[in-house]
């Protein structure tokens, strides 16, 4: 993750200049280069496929948008671009920007958000945990397929880790899974998923 602009951007600036460029998100007005890699995209793509199959099989009124931005707080120039997000189609008519922009501002529109960890692991394990909890997103997955997170977050020895964060009032409780372990998602309770299933070959 690299901060690449010395100029502070507003939401409008960001949408105008970078809406279609999936490399970037905005944090407190600073443009952040997400530095995506092929393996990172492999993991997020496999996760989206697994989740999508489950949503169709369960006939849930939820979907995974092709592109989506989360604008969590009106008083802060922060725009998140999660690797995978599951939206509730039944409430999108209440989203003020959705009709003209793929931008979500209300936590109740989001059922699940997934971040695949890369070099910006501090943001995924700390700041986004707080932001997504404050938004009221019921579940947040942190998929650290290379074991990059700090020891305080994934333990020692560092190893690939899949963290399921479940909202409990206004904070997340966290459950971690390693390779060869079946992941339990309170939100997607019938989903059969292991970290091994989404790793790059």
TrEMBL record:
InterPro entries: Nuclease_put_TT1808 (IPR012296), Restrct_endonuc-II-like (IPR011335), Uma2 (IPR008538)
Record domain Putative restriction endonuclease: where: 12-195
CDD domains the UniProt entry points to: DUF820-like
SUPFAM superfamilies per record: Restriction endonuclease-like
Signal peptide: none
Family annotation (Gene3D superfamilies): tt1808, chain A (3.90.1570.10)
Pfam family, one: Uma2
PANTHER family in alphabetical order: SLL0198 PROTEIN-RELATED, SLL0888 PROTEIN
Protein name per the record: Putative restriction endonuclease domain-containing protein
Lineage, top ranks: Bacteria, Bacillati, Cyanobacteriota, Cyanophyceae, Oscillatoriophycideae
């Amino acid at each position: 993750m690299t901060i690449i602009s010395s100029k502070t951007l507003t939401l409008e600036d960001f949408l105008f200049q970078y809406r279609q460029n999936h490399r970037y998100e905005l944090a407190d007005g600073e443009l952040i280069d997400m530095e995506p890699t092929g393996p990172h995209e492999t993991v997020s793509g496999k996760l989206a496929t697994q989740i999508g199959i489950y949503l169709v099989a369960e006939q849930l009124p939820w979907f995974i948008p092709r592109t989506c931005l989360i604008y969590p707080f009106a008083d802060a120039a922060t725009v998140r671009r999660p690797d995978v997000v599951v939206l509730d189609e039944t409430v999108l008519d209440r989203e003020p920007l959705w009709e003209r922009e793929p931008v979500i501002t209300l936590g109740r529109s989001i059922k699940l958000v997934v971040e695949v960890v890369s070099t910006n692991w501090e943001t995924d394990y700390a700041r986004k945990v707080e932001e997504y909890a404050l938004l009221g997103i019921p579940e947040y997955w942190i998929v650290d397929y290379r074991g990059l997170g700090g020891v305080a977050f994934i333990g020692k020895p560092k190893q690939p880790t899949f963290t399921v964060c479940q909202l409990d009032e206004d904070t997340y409780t966290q459950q971690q899974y390693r390779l060869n372990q079946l992941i339990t998602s309170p939100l997607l309770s019938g989903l059969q998923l292991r970290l091994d299933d989404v790793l790059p070959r």
